[in-house]
Each structure stands twice: as C-alpha cells, then as structure tokens.
Amino acid sequence: MALTKLLTATAAALDRRFGWDRLPRPLGVVTLVGLRTRLRQENLHDTGAVDSVHPHRNGDRHLRTRTLDGSNNDLGAPTMGMIGARFGRNVPVARTHPEPLPDLLEPNPRLVSRELLTRTEFQPATIVNVLAGAWLQFEVHDWFSHGKNVEEEPFELDLAEDDDWPERPMRIQRTRPDASHPGDDSPPTYVTADSHWWDGSQIYGSDAAFATALRAKEGGKLRLDPDGQLPRDLESLVDLTGVAGNFWLGLALLHTLFTREHNAICERLAQEYPAWSDDALYDRARLINAALMAKIHTVEWTPAIIAHPTTRYAMRANWYGILGRRLNKRLGKRSSNEVLGGIPGSPTDHHGVPYSLTEEFVAVYRMHPLLPDDFTFRSLETDEVLEERTFRELGALHTRARMDELGLPNAFYSLGIAHPGAITLHNYPRFLQHFERPDGTVMDLAATDILRVRERGVPRYNEFRRLFHLKPAASFEELTDDPQWAEELRRVYDDVERVDLMVGLYAEPLPKGFGFSDTAFRVFILMASRRLKSDRFFTRDYNAETYTQAGLDWIDESSMIDVLKRHYPELEPALRGVENAFAPWTRVSG
Question: Are 131 and 582 within 8 A, CB to CB?
C-alpha cells in the first residue's frame, strides 16, 4: 500500500511538472503505470445493476465459450457486462446530471457544428492510413451501442437564417432511456444494446437468429458467397435504421476479412482435432478470432495512431508485459504478473467496481474526422486510378456494387495508401453534417455528437479535465495553441468553462506522434487495460485448455499484415517493408 501511494504520488508529480510524454521512455512508462493505478482507484464508478436482465445457460457450454448476449463472463456475477447492462462512469455519478434545458442546448450544437467543425479543407493524418479509420469504426460496432433512439419529444434546435437545413427546427432524437431507472432525482442511466465485452460481436452477431443465419453449419465455419464476399441474403436480416445504416465499404472489407479469418482458424483446429463438432470448432474459432482482433487493436492500431515511443512500448507491454514477446516465449510461460507478462493470462481483476464500458469512454471515442469525404481507388497492379467516389457512393446501399466493381484487393490497397482525416477542429466530414441514412432520414452527426455527450451527463471539457486530475484551461489561449481557433472558440462559447468536451479534445495541442488528444488518452490509460483485465477469456482463462495451444499460437504468430496476406496474398508488394498495417502502405509501380 505504501509503495502504491508512493508510485501514484510520484507519477502525478512528474506528469504535472514535466508531462509523461517529455520524460525518458523508462521513466515515462513508470509514470503511465502510476497514472493508471490512480485512475483505477479514483475513476471507476458503478451505476448499479439492472434487475431485468437474466443470463441464459446452455449446459456447461458457457464455461468455455463466449455467449451471444455477453452473459456468464464473470461466473460469480453472470449478468455483468451482458446486453441490457448499464454503462458505467469514469467520473463520480453525482457529477453526471445533464444540464437542464435550455442550458443543455447552449451554445446551439448546430452552431458548434457549422462554426468549429465544418471541414473547409481536408487535413490529413499522415501517420496512418484510411484502413485505421475503418478499423476504429469496425471495433466501435463491437463495443458501444445505446440501441435505437426514441422518436418522442426530440430535442429541437433553432437555426440561423442562412442555414439551409431542410426542416425548421432541427430535430435530434433522444437516447433510449434506461427502463430500470427508479425515476427519482438520481442522474439518468443508459443500457447497452451490445455486450460490454470485447467479444467480436460485430462479426458474430448478438441475437440467436442472426448468429444462426451467419453459420455454414459445417466445420464451425461462417457463410461466404462463392466469390468470397459476405452472403447477399443477410441484407434482408439487417435493420438499416439502426447501427447497420452506418455500413460502408471500409467496414465491409474488414467484416469479410475476419469472416475469412474465422474460417481459416476452423480449418486449423479441424486438422488438430478432427473429431470436434461444428459447435466446438465454431466456439473455439470465435474465441481465437476475438482475441486476435483485441491483440491487433492493442499492439498495432493503438501504437499507430498514438505513435509516441513511450506509448508504443506501453501498449505492447499491456499485451506482452515488460518481459516482451520474445522473452516470454523463451521462458515457455507468461508470468502471471500483468506488469511482467502482460494482461493475457494474469488474474482477473475488476478493481473493486463491476465491469462495464463507460459513457466517458464512449464520448472520447467520437473520432469521425478520420473519415474522408472523397476517395480515390487505384489498381494494385499498376497504381492507375480506377474510380473516384464520394463517401455517399460507398455507403450501405452501394457497398456491394463497389466491391464487385473494384475487387477486394484493389479496395484494400486503395485504403492502405490513403490518409484519413486528422482529429481536429474544422475537419469533420461534410457528408456527416448532412448524413442521408439508408432509411431516408437526414441528420447532422456533428451536432448530434455534441448533444449526445451533453445529454448523457458527460462533463464539459474543463470539468472533465479536473475529474481526470488534469489542470483545466484558464483561457481559450491556454486551451489551444492556434490563435485563430482561440478567437473562434471565444466567439462561440464566450466562457472557456462552456467548451464542449469533444471540441476541447479536437482543439488542444497533441503530444508528439499522437493522432488524438492527451485528455482522451487519460481515459484510454484506464479503459484500454480494463477491457482486457476484467474479461476472464483474456485473463484467467487465456490458456491452452480454453483456447487450445494451436489457438494461442495462432494469436501470437499473427499480425494484421499476416491476416491480410493470408487471405489476399496479392497484397504482398504493397505491404513489403511496412511494419504496421495501419501505417501508409507502399505504392506499387506499373
């Protein structure tokens, strides 16, 4: 205890005095460990259990595989993290009351969208490729869903005279409320429509009918059409008024890739265990595939988008520990200590608070500026331009046509060599400010993002920083190092205390090599490891008995580049010399 207090106090002092990112790497890593320890102690808050959710058990199958609804991950608390469980908090629950109307709508979210977020000129994030942006959306569809919004009593936003929005006032639907909330004066709570676990649900589905329709019913595999693409008949089972309405070419590529990866894992397991049933192969392949995606996100995607030497090392240490992959392999067994051997295989620990994802984690993952408005598709063989398309032409209703025209290798190559947008002010995708969903509704997603964070009681930027043990900005000039932005922020907000969290995250100066803000990173320090540390399939059950040794080897030996080349070997020239699949690929020459 005394050592822990010394570690957290020293880390806080070093971070406050120098900044973790300005310290030599060894000292920077120790500082991050100390910061994470403090955040685990002070920034995990339970919003309470929901009485109406009940886990379902099918014999003892739940002991060795993930359930569709996320139940039975924690066998002592089987409803923890399942569909219908509440989102938690990283700030004290008492501080999460949303502001009353009309304060909640001030400044007008549409004004914030138009004045501070509109993309006037595309600003690229040159350290990563568009595949990195697609990957984030692919993963978010596994993590966060508040379900379909409610149509009754929408928020109404007044519009400026020169605003050409098609209706007046602008209406934004409210988040679906938590039916189990007692209805008293306590802050509102919200429940998830996906499980809180990192379980690959975007691939496997969350309800029995859809999951069954995905399966080939042979060899544990998932269905694919003869051309290697996702089955066309599944489109009739998808509700385009929900999350599926956000589908586009980038997501289709990743869904196809990891469906194929699942099937490859099944083939490997069938070689090792020829007597296994269809269900046994499916269950183990899902475990392995989900863990591989979690590993790719931890040791590849995150270090690509926060490419500071300290964070690159720290994220690998989250998975492999400070001993590293090679030494662990040489020793033949991971250390059970998470600092030495990494979180996989270490004891499960919820750090005193039942596991859930949090509203604050949802809020800081609003990174839509990564998406370009315009795309150029090139030939993998010659690099010549094949097509130029807007994002709208790649959306859910057009995805299959684009994939048929381009072919998946050309599409992957084109996203791999192109840059996404920088996560900054004045770089929000124009098409998302007038987003025409497949069901015909139109929305300004930028204004909606701003309002969603306020509606769910996530504190505004300065208060958020205080609650995460950071110094608040005393002025607009202290918030951003861009004088023009400071003046624009002053014009919109007048008071620096009113700056929205998302706007502050986009405006603040970034640490070296970072694609998103240091304030957002504080949430990731805590929650990126918590998603692994609370999950028994990444901790106590991350072993050969659960995964098989062949499965553990598959995870350990596969990178995103390996997955891409396994299924599309023609990508090899574009990936030659590339260390991280989410960094820009090599342009081919004809």
Answer: yes
Residue of 152, 278, 139 lying closest to 222 (CA atoms): 278
DSSP state string for 59-124: TTGGGTS--TT-TTSSTTSTTTTSTTPBPBBSS-GGG-PPPPTTGGG-S-HHHHIIIIIB-SS--B
pLDDT at 173: 95
| Burial (CB count <10 Å: 0-12, 13-18, 19+), residue 186 | middle
CA distance 128 to 418: 8
Please check whether residue 280 is in contact with residue 590, taking contact to mean a CB–CB distance below 8 angstroms: no
DSSP 394-440: GBTTTHHHHHHHH-HHHHHHHHHHS--B-SSTT-B-HHHHTEE-TTS
**2: Cα separation from own chain's centroid:** 35
Per residue in 228-270, pLDDT (tens digit) is 999 988 776 665 555 666 889 999 999 999 999 999 999 999 9
Catalytic residue among 45, 54, 97, 141: 141
What is the per-residue pLDDT across 369-403, written as a single tens digit (0 to 9) for each?
A: 999 999 999 999 999 999 999 999 999 889 999 99
Q: What is the DSSP-derived secondary structure letter of residue 335?
A: -
Q: Based on the residue annotation, tell me whether 141 is a catalytic residue of this protein.
A: yes
Three-class SS state of 442: strand
For every residue of 42-58, DSSP letters joined together read: HS-B-----TT------
Both tokens of 527, joined, read 């929650």
- The confidence score (pLDDT) of residue 235 equals 72
CATH pick for 43-575 out of 1.20.1080.10, 1.10.640.10, 2.60.120.260, 3.90.1170.40:
1.10.640.10
DSSP string, 259-287: HHHHHHHHHHHHHH-TT--HHHHHHHHHH
d(CA 512, CA 124): 16
- pLDDT tens track for 204-236: 999 898 899 999 999 999 999 999 999 988 776
Q: Which residue has the tokens 């809180």?
A: 196
| Tokens found for residue 546 | 């659960």
Phi, psi (degrees; rounded to nearest 5) at 91: -130, 160
